[in-house]
Amino acid sequence: MNKINRNQFQSFPYHLVEPSPWPILVSFSLLSLTLGAVMYMQGFTHGGQLISLGFTLTVFGMILWFRDIITEGTYKFIYPESFNNIVFIGKVIKREMIDILFRKYADKEESKLNPGSNTLSKEELGYYLAGLLEGDGHIGLPFIGKTLLNRELNPRITFTSHVNNLEMYLYIQNQLGGIGRFLVTGNVLRYIIGDIEGMKLIINLIHGKLRTPKNIRFNQLIEYFNNKYKLNIPKSCLDRSNLYSNSWFTGFIEADGHFGIKISKRKMIKDSTSSTLPHKIRMNNVSLVFRLDQRVQDISTNSSMESIMQILADQLNCKLLTFNYVPNKKTNEMREVYSVSLTSPLKLFSLIEYLNKYKLLGIKCRDFKDWERVFHMIVSKTHLTDAGYLEIMNIKENMNSKRQIINPLI
């Protein structure tokens, strides 16, 4: 991977902003305010006027200064082009771990990074990124124009994930030719694509492959590029193809899917097949579920997600459910979501076949492989044995949020 090198990792936990005139203006304003106050108290002529001038300039400078700070926060991550590709905030990086990552890429061992890593065709990569964007992505569109500091506000495409998926996004960045930057804040990883050529590449890759209301936002992005750069990119139409015909659903599952194992308490039942006196045997009840949840409203377009979620429910041959939950106990805010779930072995088998054809690339692939392993244990009825029951218990205790992963950034 020749476009990724160690210089993409920044060794200090901050970034350098562009030069601003407001700090020096505020400094001279405060100096004028101080001198004016001294002159006024000592009875010098024009002391009051100097106080007024210093105070006015201080307020004016602070307003402009904080306006630019708010602008940078609103149009997230507007960094100069020389900014390094990865910024780590509040993290201590183990250099040897970073070296291991790059050595794997240099030796072309991408397939060893994650269980699901595989080389995707350009078409399938586009479908996968479309699903990933619609699940965990954001399209940022600033106002057309420049700030007073001559900063041009460009649009951004941002993928948000857990930091444990860094290897997956490095793999994606490699497949995209090294475009984009990374921002890590705590356990949150953001992969940000904001340069013009990178945005054009993403637009071409996912054009006509989106299925959710985020396609509205995507068309606004296309209109922005057409107007600003005199392009003639056609509008993107919603993809209505079968859910299992490409890797879009894999990307969507990567973002919002959940593989669950349910283990009921072991029951004692009578063995009626025994020719001798009936005796009690232990029965292990293990079931699997696949679930995918989405908000009822797409925030960026304020559009309902009911249409796409109903399409998913129809193609998966299951019911579309809604439920409320409280994501933040501090605010006690209730959130309504749509949910589709599969529990039938036949439907789960179809999903397993699909995910073995269009593979997950991130950490969730490990959850899927463990989940698939339990599925085959249920089919072969080895889950009924004591050894099988204990094995499934151990698998469940090390899946999803309980999975222990060595984080390369700590």
What's the layout of helices and strands?
Blueprint (H helix, E strand, L loop, with lengths): L21 H20 L5 H28 L11 E4 L5 H12 L15 H15 E4 L15 E7 L3 H10 L5 E5 L2 E6 L2 H11 L7 H16 L18 H9 E7 L3 E5 L7 E5 L2 E10 L1 E2 L4 E2 L1 H11 L4 E5 L9 E8 L2 H13 L6 H16 L6 H11 L14
Parallel strand pairs: 1-4
Antiparallel strand pairs: 2-3, 3-5, 4-5, 6-9, 7-8, 9-13, 10-11, 12-13
Keywords:
four-stranded antiparallel β-sheet; Endonuclease I-creI
Give a brief outline of the structure.
This protein has helices at residues 22-41, 47-74, 95-106, 122-136, 166-175, 196-206, 214-229, 248-256, 306-316, 345-357, 364-379, 386-396, and strands at residues 86-89, 137-140, 156-162, 181-185, 188-193, 257-263, 267-271, 279-283, 286-295, 297-298, 303-304, 321-325, 335-342. With 410 residues, the chain is α+β, with helices and mostly antiparallel strands.
> Could you name the CATH class of the largest domain?
Alpha Beta
Order of helices and strands: HHEHHEEHEEHHHEEEEEEHEEHHH
CATH architecture of the largest domain: Roll
Task: Name the CATH superfamily assignment of the largest domain.
Answer: Homing endonucleases
User: How many H/I helical runs?
Assistant: 12
SS-based structural class?
alpha+beta
- Sequence stretches where pLDDT stays below 50 over 5 or more residues: 1-16, 74-98, 108-113, 277-281
Question: What global shape is seen?
Answer: elongated
Report the end-to-end length measured between terminal Cα atoms.
Answer: 24 Å
> How would you state the average pLDDT, rounded?
79
Strand residue content: 15-25%
| Helical fraction | 40-55%
The value of Rg in angstroms is 28 Å
CATH topology of the largest domain: Endonuclease I-creI
- As laid out across the biggest beta sheet, the strand order is 1-4-5-3-2
Number of domains: 3
Main sheet makeup: 5 strands, mixed
What's the number of extended β-strand segments? 13
